[in-house]
Amino acid sequence: MRLVNDGLAFLLELLALAALAYWGFTTGDGIALKLVLGIGAPVLAAVVWGLFAAPRATFGLPRVAVVVVKVLWFGAAVTALCVTGHPVLGAALAVLAVANLGYATAKKMATA
Fold it and tell me: Which domain of life does this protein belong to (predicted)?
């Protein structure tokens, strides 16, 4: 079950990056701003993830802080989907992310 949840987590992370890229490319006026937002938003999100939330994050935070970073990170992706006119996809991402994060957090707390 852990392998399935880890695979789902990775898929959700990729979908969140795609949502941020989609938001960026559909937001803003002019091609330059669309490129900056479309490339910059997912790159910034990936850097934040790598620094604070990844399994081998650069900065080891307490578990509660990692959960907060993940909630904010996925919240940004859900918001990006909703403001671009895809609230059903946003809701689906939110539900799956909460279930995935909840399961992973519960398993880590049970083994700690």
Answer: Bacteria
Domain that holds residue 18: 2-111
Report how many domains make up the chain: 1
DSSP the chain: -HHHHHHHHHHHHHHHHHHHHHHHHHSSSSHHHHHHHHHHHHHHHHHHIIIIISTT-SS---HHHHHHHHHHHHHHHHHHHHHTT-HHHHHHHHHHHHHHHHHHHHHHHHH-
Instruction: Give the tens place of pLDDT for each residue, 75-91.
Output: 999 999 999 999 999 99
